[in-house]
Design a protein that fits this description.
The protein has 301 residues and is mainly alpha-helical. It has a domain at 50-256: f41 fragment of flagellin, N-terminal domain (Up-down Bundle). 66% of the residues lie in helices and 6% in strands. It has seven helices and six strands, in the order αααββββαββααα. It has helices spanning 5-32, 43-98, 104-125, 184-187, 195-207, 214-263, 267-292, and strands at residues 146-148, 156-158, 169-173, 176-179, 189-190, 193-194. The strands form three sheets. The protein has a two-stranded antiparallel sheet with strand order 1-2. It has a two-stranded antiparallel ribbon with strand order 3-4. β5 (189-190) and β6 (193-194) form a beta hairpin. The longest helix has 56 residues, at 43-98.
């Protein structure tokens, strides 16, 4: 086969173009940190990367949701703990007052303390968060759980606008949700009576010099149990959130490793390839220069 000078010229030119393209590719991989620069590079890998990136995006949102839910529930947990302290003191006063009904000053002191505890409980159950939403109103975030009645006693009643205890759920994983709502109208009531009506009756009894009725003590004890149950429920939800966060984090790390292997530039490999293509290009350029210098006169002695 006859190889003409023109053919050698064209082959050298094509080789230089290929090497320049390969160098540009290696440089782009190094600059971008990505070895998958277009779907044509590896359609299967690109499809897998796209799916895993979407999954990691969902996992990131789940983690944000978990942080949000954990903050909500921890805030409620703290408020309930404070309520429990007040309720315990109410029960202590109830017992102590029934053991010392003969002292009018003591009864007045107990009645005054109960008023303070009642006001504390109102403030706690009607607490708002950083957005001004009521913590214990669930889907009725702009409605306070307990409102003034207008005529004592009782001077505070459950808000009639709150007609359900529908949960407020937050998605924390694939097909997994956790409620971040607890209704004050549910856990501060027992047997159809709420804690504030019971407290108002207790205060009135003490001011009249009467013993605290067993019925009111039963209501307070029942409310305490409801608050304890709500605390336990919140604790269980927080544990679920912690576990979900750990699961999502583990999956995310595993996905990131696979993504890196499929998508990210191996810098050592890319730099080696760049250097190889550069050296090959130099050699081709030198050969091309010699071919350009070929002429019939080179062979005439």
């Amino acid at each position: 086969m006859r190889i003409s000078t023109q053919m050698m010229f064209q082959n050298s030119l094509s080789a230089m173009q290929r090497q320049q393209t390969a160098m540009a590719r290696a440089q782009e991989e190094i600059a971008s940190g990505r070895k998958l620069l277009s779907p044509e590079d590896d359609p299967v890998a690109v499809s897998t990367v796209n799916q895993m990136e979407k999954r990691n995006s969902k996992l990131t949102q789940y983690q944000r949701n978990i942080d949000f839910a954990t903050g909500k529930l921890q805030n409620q947990e703290g408020l309930l703990s404070n309520m429990q302290d007040r309720l315990q003191r109410v029960r202590e006063i109830s017992i102590a007052s029934n053991n010392d009904l003969g002292n009018a000053n003591t009864r007045k002191t107990f009645a005054d303390e109960l008023k303070g505890l009642r006001d504390d409980l109102k403030r706690l159950v009607n607490s708002t968060d950083e957005n001004g939403d009521f913590v214990f109103s669930g889907i009725y975030a702009k409605e306070s759980p307990f409102v003034p009645n207008g005529a004592p006693p009782p001077d505070t009643i459950p808000n009639p606008a709150i007609t359900t205890t529908t949960p407020v759920n937050v998605e924390i994983g694939e097909g997994e949700q956790v409620s971040v709502s607890n209704y004050g109208t549910a856990f501060l009531a027992s047997g159809g009576s709420d804690v504030f009506a019971a407290l108002d009756t207790m205060i009135a009894d003490l001011e009249a010099g009467n013993p605290v009725a067993a019925a009111q003590e039963t209501i307070i004890a029942g409310v305490q149990d409801q608050v304890s149950l709500t605390q336990s429920t919140i604790g269980n939800r927080i544990n679920r959130l912690d576990q979900a966060f750990e699961n999502n984090d583990t999956e995310g790390l595993a996905n990131t490793k696979v993504l890196s292997r499929l998508r990210d530039t191996d810098y050592a490999e890319a730099i080696t390839k760049l250097n190889q293509e550069y050296m090959a290009l130099q050699a081709t350029q030198q050969s091309f220069a010699k071919i350009q210098g070929l002429s019939l006169f080179n062979y005439i002695s």
